[in-house]
Amino acid sequence: MHGLSDRYDLFIFDWDGTLEKVRYMYKLNERLNPFWKNKKSSSLMNAATRNDRMLIERNLKRLEHIEETGERRFKWILDMYMRFSKPGLQYGAVGVLDALKGKGRHIAVFSNGALWRVKKEAEELKIDRYFDSMVSAQSIGFLKPNPMGIHMIIKVCKATRSRTLYIGDMIDDIKTARGAGVDSCGIAAGFDDRTAL
């Protein structure tokens, strides 16, 4: 983030896969492609525990038949699984947050994940104190790539689009930033790999 902290006043992070490490639940992405169209790197599966794999495999058949109205149910299942699996931070995340806060920059989270889960995980990881704002796309009813959440955060933080950077790990994050008229930065250690970003 060297140099970026001088160009931007507001740093908005996606949560799952950007600040928080990718967990095995993302294997569902490949099986539920009607909702998440991006292809994932097979290396994500290597980090999964045996218990994670068994849990996912048991539930895949039930989840395969989710239709348009079932997307919310899927997100709820994903949030519940994520809530009961141990969260962890991406390497260097605390250092980046420390540096940005030390320079007096605003830091926020905009995630498709449920707000209750993201807040709880941030508390457990002891990083909740860094954030000026947390917005869930589910809570406001506009999932990414709709940029409504970014617009809300910019307003709350009294920032400008030209001095805002959105950091995410998926193509939808990049599209969200473009739709909001803000700069973006892709993190290749999350959902989408480097070639997709």
Automatic annotation (TrEMBL):
SUPFAM superfamilies: HAD-like. GO terms for molecular function: phosphoglycolate phosphatase activity. One of its GO terms (biological process) is DNA repair. Pfam families: HAD_2 (PF13419). NCBIfam families: HAD-SF-IA-v1. This is Phosphoglycolate phosphatase. The lineage of its organism: unclassified sequences, metagenomes, ecological metagenomes.
